[in-house]
Amino acid sequence: MTISELLTGLSPYPVADTFLDSISLEVGTDKAVDVSTVDVTTLNRLKARLYFGLATQPNISEGGVSISFTAEDKKAFLALAKRFAHLAGEDGLVPGATYGYKGENL
Hints:
Helix content: 40-55%
Number of helices: 4
Structural class: mainly alpha
Oligomer: single chain
Strand order of the largest sheet: 1-2
């Protein structure tokens, strides 16, 4: 099984090949690599990025096909992203929301 097959199998929604290319390059691997040759930390880094990407996806409707994420879906994806990022030692990968007033003079 390749990294690409693993990651698309984890997602209940379609995942673009370009997205898989991007996250694979980001962690220093290739999506065509066999999963059995990849260390657990790298797999966790890939999974964190996959779920973070899903959590931040907009809802899409095109040609009668609609892919939408509920707020609960996005929360679940974000929780999974944080979990895998933590396991990979990348706690800062998934930012928390920060709110505040910056004033008029930015």
